Amino acid sequence: MSNKQSQLTNGIVQERAGGVQPASSRNADMMPAGLADLPETFRPIVTRLLDERPEPIGSGAALKILPIRYVTRPYSSLLHFAIQFPSRSWRGYIKIEKCSPTLEPNSSSPEVQLRQQFELLKRLQPLFKPQDPVGIVRPVAWFGDYPALVTEEIPGRTVYVELSRCLGISAGDRDVERMEQVCRRCGLFLKRFQDVNLQDDDTPFSLKEMRAYIDRRLQNIVHRGQIAFDESSRTRLLKLIDRLSERVDTKELRVAQIHGDFTPANIMLSDGRVVVLDFAMSSYGNVLHDVAHFHHQLHLWSLHPRWSARRIGRLQQAFLDGYGCSDSSNPLFTLFRVQHVTCQLSRLSRPSASSILSRTYDRYVIRRQLRWLNAIAK
């Protein structure tokens, strides 16, 4: 890999080439400058974009390709790039998916996941207008043979970044009030997203399948033996799940399209608008899944001594108000909290190569989450 490509990674592990189709056979003199500066995996995808010119890239001679940032993760790679034209510049993202391990027996392949994500975004695009306070990322292209998804850049910062700026000790009430409005809009987005994606038939959400989903993760935790959670703890938690399930109002078992990873890191704040990204994990599920997940993500901030738990509580309430959820202590909401905490503990129970400081903090989070589970399971 060239020095220029190495600089793109900004200290992140580099993507390795291999198994990628060759770039277009067009004459190299016709290609814009900068194509060779891209990580090799992404060159044929950018070439194909220039060949096909899907909206909103548009026509005209492309002068230069500008790689902005390149990130590689265990199961995906992301390129942020720009195409420079004589009188304008277009910016976008390319995401390449790879197979990832899962406990679910019928999980979709990366090709299917990206295709479904692209089709969902195309279907939703007309429902969210540019003047709306909430919106979604604009889809550009899907290429199943890589597989890769291309989306347009959303200028701004993630809600995650904004939270870190507005929750510190030095932040004032005005900062918190601004983030309360952001969180209300996050709740508003979920409500609108679900309302247009409610399942047509009357098939209710399956609490039995939810129990099995949680138990697969509990069994993994027990089997790994890395945290203070044994077979008796698993049995006690399953009994709690059964008790809560008996108290769930059947009217709450509505099924709709869910985002699947609705977190502050997947939401952009762009000129005051809340714009949601990364629908790769979207599927059909209960309407409270994403609500409880975002609420749980905010709760994790309250565990850190750097942030004010009181302020985060205000943000959690603003989010629930925006969604229209009046009671976060009802049995089904609690079940989803148990599910999200269990998933987190399953992840933290795996061996980690992170720093000593990170592992120490992870152990602290584990203790806090186990304390909560033990308290409600009594």
Q: Please, could you describe this protein's structure?
A:
The chain is α+β, with helices and mostly antiparallel strands and 378 residues long. It has 2 domains: 3-152, no CATH class; 157-377, Alpha-Beta Complex (Aminoglycoside 3'-phosphotransferase, Chain: A, domain 2), CATH 3.90.1200.10. Helices cover 44% and strands 16% of the residues. It contains 11 helices and 11 strands. The strands form 3 sheets. It has a 5-stranded antiparallel sheet, with helices on one face. A 4-stranded mixed sheet has the order 4-10-9-7. A hairpin with a 2-residue loop joins β1 and β2 (76-84). α5 (173-195) packs parallel to α9, α6 runs antiparallel to α7 and α8 runs antiparallel to α9 (309-323). The longest helix is centred in the middle third of the chain and has 23 residues, at 173-195. The protein is globular. The termini are far apart. Residues 1-29 have low confidence and may be disordered.
